[in-house]
């Protein structure tokens, strides 16, 4: 018996009774969580076996029509890019989305920049202006306040898109990198199925090897994406939009009430309201989108707090609407009790309450016996099946469990915050990304952060508690296996409390080289996909022109590896000293000045396209027919431009920054240019331009 039992008498007996009841309740919750996971895995196995035997994938249940051959007949698609002070990745996502294959005149890029950091704003403005001058319809919207955070920004942007007649909107967070053919792989599902409200792609990760922390995240998210989202979509159950890397039908957003900032999980909120109103959704396992995992423990804590607290808030606020909906009773019960009750709430009580609180207490109370099957067999089974969705995941299965338990203090506090709807539940802190996966020339992302000196009291307290329990069990000589677990888990809590899990910290070293081996042919080109690839999912109108180059062939000239570098406008000689006069003299080309329409500056700074492909070519020559070698002529370029086929032409000189030089809401682009030129009149003309040629002109090749 515990040594103090004789001293406390009846109080100790009461303590044992309460602890025994708590253990039984925790075992019951653990069984619910484990059963839910094992059922999901069983469904996954069923759908995979069915696909292997019949060749019928879940997405084949939905129509996938061919896209029209006429670019003007394509649906209007917008791409929203919400961001906030994400300096390391803001330019990469703009590059990626501007390279998406879709008819130029039917595509709009909308950058929703709530950044307060002047450097980030400058980087965003540079990219928006650069791509605008290349002829793309791109704008940057900025608000005077951050009301509603991400949901508020997307709501304001969506209101403008609906008024402009856009049918679909793709959403990407700043750390994502969609492939050029993303829209061709997703939009046809929305075109061919009027009942589908949104399409979600699968996340893949650029930096899982950066540290043990990112590897544990990969194991968790791979299970969520490859198993949970896949099986729920295939079975017709509810699965939430993941906030990014998906495409929405604008009519679905509008009829479901739009983006709402009542919780910090606006994506789950909107997808739940759409589901309750009868809209369907599709998860595409074969369409992937790269993104970066947070390598900073501080950023990861904030992300997990938001992802845990938000669903609890939504559970309390949406339950009434779920019960009042026309959903079948089984779907209502599944949503309220299994989706929210078990997956979003009970899981966190089991992790911290059972394995990190009750189990250590039983080390001091030998009268309470834990069933081995609930303590060892069931958790091992669940852990191994969860890790199976990650390559070599079994190697990191123990790491995954230890790290998930150590995050229990953050998640359980988030659950309590959400249940009580405390003020902190409404905090929305952006998950900082380092841009370590950005390999573009000139990219300045931080690859390895230095661990901070921040300490976390809750983790340190649990560390002391678990180390004491483990030491007591080891000295008592009973349950040595459990004592060893407590000592290891206590050490992990200590590492979390000392912030030693950041990249570069004690548990933050790289696991191995980030090398992806891709089979290539003799010419060094990647080999085609294997026989299991789903060729049916590529529209013929897109495949016939080389993977989506119908309106804008994949332009090597504007690829991210050859992106025109950002020019510092204040650098002497960068654009010339005399502004427009110098450009005309030095380049021999005339760029027609276009008067911009009067802009409504309702919380926006709107980028304006000044590319005049036809005018630039017509000013240089007047040939009326194609040359004998098949090269383009002004007439053919003009015809291409009218049909939307033209490739962005020569890049005119960058104008002054709109945010710095815009004198009034009614100013025109001509006034901005004239003011910028006048401001630079006093700078000497570079010698290369006085000689009548551009710098590096000898390297240029004429068409």
UniProtKB/TrEMBL annotation:
User: Which terms are listed as keywords in the entry?
Assistant: Cell wall biogenesis/degradation, Glycosyltransferase, Golgi apparatus, Membrane, Transferase, Transmembrane, Transmembrane helix
Name the enzyme's class: transferase
Residues of the Glycosyltransferase 2-like domain = 168-382
* Start and end residues of each stretch annotated as Disordered: 528-554, 619-650, 673-703
How does it sit in the bilayer?
A: Multi-pass membrane protein
Composition bias type Low complexity, residue spans: 619-634, 673-682
Say yes or no: keyword Transferase present: yes
- Write down a Pfam family by its short name: Glyco_trans_2_3
Q: Which domain of life is it from?
A: Eukaryota
Give the enzyme's EC designation.
2.4.1.32
GO biological process per UniProt = cell wall organization
What the entry lists under InterPro entries is as follows: Glyco_trans_2-like (IPR001173), Nucleotide-diphossugar_trans (IPR029044)
Q: Which GO terms describe its cellular component?
A: Golgi membrane
Transmembrane portions of the chain? 12-33, 345-364, 370-389, 455-476, 482-501
The UniProt catalytic activity note for this protein reads:
GDP-mannose + (glucomannan)n = GDP + (glucomannan)n+1
Please list the GO terms describing molecular function: glucomannan 4-beta-mannosyltransferase activity
Where mainly located?
Answer: Golgi
**Compartment(s):** Golgi apparatus membrane
Question: Does the keyword Cell cycle feature in the UniProt annotation?
Answer: no
Tell me its family. Answer: Belongs to the glycosyltransferase 2 family. Plant cellulose synthase-like A subfamily.
Q: Report the function annotation for this chain.
A: Probable mannan synthase which consists of a 4-beta-mannosyltransferase activity on mannan using GDP-mannose. The beta-1,4-mannan product is the backbone for galactomannan synthesis by galactomannan galactosyltransferase. Galactomannan is a noncellulosic polysaccharides of plant cell wall.
Protein's UniProt name: glucomannan 4-beta-mannosyltransferase
């Amino acid at each position: 018996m515990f040594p103090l039992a004789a001293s406390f008498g009846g109080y100790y007996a009461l303590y044992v009774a309460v602890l025994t009841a708590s253990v039984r309740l925790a075992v019951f919750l653990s069984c619910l969580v484990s059963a839910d996971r094992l059922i999901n895995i069983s469904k996954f196995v069923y759908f995979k076996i069915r696909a292997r035997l019949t060749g019928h994938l879940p997405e084949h249940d939905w129509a996938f029509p061919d896209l029209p051959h006429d670019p003007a007949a394509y649906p209007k698609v917008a791409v929203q890019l919400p961001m906030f002070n994400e300096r390391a990745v803001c330019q990469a996502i703009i590059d990626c989305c501007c390279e998406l294959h879709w008819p130029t005149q039917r595509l709009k890029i909308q950058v929703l920049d709530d950044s307060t950091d002047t450097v980030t704003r400058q980087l965003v403005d540079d990219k928006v202006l650069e791509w605008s001058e290349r002829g793309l319809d791109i704008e940057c919207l900025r608000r005077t306040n951050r009301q509603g955070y991400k949901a508020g920004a997307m709501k304001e942007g969506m209101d403008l898109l609906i008024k402009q007649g856009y049918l679909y909107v793709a959403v990407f967070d700043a750390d994502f990198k969609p492939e050029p053919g993303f829209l061709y792989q997703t939009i046809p599902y929305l075109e061919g199925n009027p009942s589908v409200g949104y399409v979600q792609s699968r996340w893949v990760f650029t930096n899982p090897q950066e540290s043990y922390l990112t590897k544990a995240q990969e194991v968790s998210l791979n299970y969520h994406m490859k198993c949970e989202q896949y099986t729920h979509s295939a079975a017709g159950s509810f699965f939430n939009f993941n906030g990014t890397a998906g495409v929405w039908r604008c009519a679905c957003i509008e009829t479901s009430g739009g983006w709402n900032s009542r919780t910090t999980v606006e994506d789950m909120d909107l997808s739940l309201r759409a589901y309750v109103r009868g809209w369907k959704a599709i998860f595409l396992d074969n369409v992937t989108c790269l993104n970066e995992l947070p390598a900073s423990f501080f950023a990861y804590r904030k992300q997990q707090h938001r992802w845990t607290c938000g669903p609890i808030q939504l559970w309390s606020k949406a339950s009434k609407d779920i019960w009042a909906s026309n959903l079948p009773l089984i779907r209502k019960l599944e949503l309220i009790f299994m989706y929210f009750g078990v997956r979003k709430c009970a899981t966190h009580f089991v992790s911290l309450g059972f394995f990190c609180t009750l189990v250590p207490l039983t080390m001091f109370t030998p009268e309470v016996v834990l069933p081995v099957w609930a303590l060892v067999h069931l958790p091992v089974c669940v852990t191994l099946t969860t890790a199976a969705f990650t390559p070599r995941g079994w190697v990191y299965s123990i790491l995954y469990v230890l790290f998930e338990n150590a995050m229990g203090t953050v998640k359980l506090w988030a659950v309590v915050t959400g249940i009580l709807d405390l003020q902190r539940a409404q905090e929305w802190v952006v998950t900082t990304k380092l841009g370590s996966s950005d390999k573009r020339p000139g990219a300045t992302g931080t690859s390895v952060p230095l661990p901070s000196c921040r300490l976390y009291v809750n983790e340190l307290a649990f560390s002391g508690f678990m180390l004491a329990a483990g030491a007591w069990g080891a000295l008592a000589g009973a349950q040595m296996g459990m004592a060893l677990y407590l000592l290891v888990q206590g050490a992990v809590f200590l590492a979390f409390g000392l912030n030693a899990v950041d990249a570069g910290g004690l548990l933050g070293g790289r696991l191995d080289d980030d090398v992806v081996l891709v089979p290539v042919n003799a010419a060094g080109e990647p080999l085609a996909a294997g026989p299991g690839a789903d060729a049916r999912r590529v529209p013929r109108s897109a495949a016939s022109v080389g993977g989506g180059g119908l309106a804008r062939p994949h332009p090597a000239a504007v690829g991210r590896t050859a992106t025109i570098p950002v020019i510092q406008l204040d650098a002497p000689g960068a654009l010339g000293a005399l502004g427009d006069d110098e450009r005309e003299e030095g380049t021999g080309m005339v760029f027609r000045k276009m008067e911009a329409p009067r802009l409504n500056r309702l919380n926006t700074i709107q980028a304006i396209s000044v590319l005049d492909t036809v005018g630039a070519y017509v000013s240089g020559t007047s040939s009326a027919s194609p040359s004998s070698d098949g090269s383009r002529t002004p007439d053919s370029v003009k015809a291409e431009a009218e049909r939307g086929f033209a490739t962005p032409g020569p890049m005119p000189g960058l104008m002054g920054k709109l945010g710095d030089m815009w004198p009034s809401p009614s100013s025109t682009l001509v006034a901005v240019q004239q003011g910028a030129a006048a401001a630079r009149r006093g700078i000497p003309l570079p010698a290369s331009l006085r000689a009548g040629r551009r710098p590096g002109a000898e390297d240029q090749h004429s068409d």
